[in-house]
Amino acid sequence: MSDGSEFIAESLEELLASIAQGIHDAQDALNAMPTVDGFGRNLPTYHLPYLDFNVQVEMESVSASTGSNFLRISPVNSNQTSTKEISSTISGRIVSIPPGEGLPTPLLSLASEKISPRKYKIMLNAINTAGEALIGQRVELNINLPASVLLSESMGITLTSKGANTALKDALLVTDELGNAGTEFTIDSEVDVKAQLVLTAELQGQTAHLNISVDINV
């Protein structure tokens, strides 16, 4: 590719990237709109599936001091010895692509079942957006102490430590033929009643959280 072609490509790249960023910012603003009104009724939401654009530009035929000639979309600068403006139109369509480039993406969920006041069965399910079970997937499960501290504070509980005996039986789970996996979660006896403990699971960039409140019937 010649130097001139490279310059044109870079100029067009910046122009298209600027348009795309504008669409992204506009969608972010739409996403920030309230989803319910003051009475709890659902409000419409909006999505920009694509944008057709038609941009008038002025391209310049430039002879630089080095003797090379090229076209570019830019103002004239002091290093140019001659310019010739060329009016042009750039048209196209920018299309939004769902996460995963339109392919099904993972969906991860966590649930718990109390075995005793300080022991819970943790159940995990991994499917994709097409409803297919994700089989044989390795899922990392952790106790999220910073989130646990913040949630506990909202309940008036100071959680300085999760306790030495607070632990997951398994920190790495593998999903079965239904996309399910499970383990047990034990809470230290020194953790205050009503304290909030947060578990976090991660799979292929997807994160699921589960809040467990220490049972009052200890």
Short descriptors:
alpha+beta; Immunoglobulin-like; elongated; 218 residues; 4-stranded antiparallel sheet; single chain
CATH architecture heading of the largest domain: Sandwich
Q: Hey, roughly how much beta strand do the residues contain?
A: 35-45%
Strand order of the largest sheet: 4-5-9-7
* Annotation field: number of helices: 2
Q: What is the CATH level 1 assignment of the largest domain? A: Mainly Beta
Poorly predicted regions are: 74-78, 80-84
Derived structural class: alpha+beta
Total number of distinct structural domains: 2
Give the termini separation. Answer: 74 Å
Order of helices and strands: HEEEEEEHEEEEE
Give the overall average pLDDT.
Answer: 81
Q: Which fold name corresponds to the CATH topology of the largest domain?
A: Immunoglobulin-like
Supply the CATH superfamily name of the largest domain.
Immunoglobulins
Shape: elongated
Rounded Rg: 28 Å
- Percentage of residues in helical conformation: 10-25%
Query: Count the strands?
Result: 11
| Largest pleated sheet | 4 strands, antiparallel
Kindly describe this structure.
- With 218 residues, this protein is α+β, with helices and mostly antiparallel strands.
- The protein folds into two domains: 3-95, no CATH class; 106-213, Immunoglobulin-like.
- Helices cover 18% and strands 41% of the residues.
- It contains two helices and eleven strands, in the order H-E-E-E-E-E-E-H-E-E-E-E-E.
- The chain has a four-stranded antiparallel sheet with strand order 4-5-9-7, with no helix packed on it. It has a four-stranded antiparallel sheet with strand order 8-6-10-11, with helices on one face.
- Strand 1 (50-64) and strand 2 form a beta hairpin.
- The longest helix is centred in the first third of the chain and has 29 residues, at 3-31.
- The relative contact order is 0.14.
- The model is unreliable at 74-78 and 80-84 (pLDDT under 50).
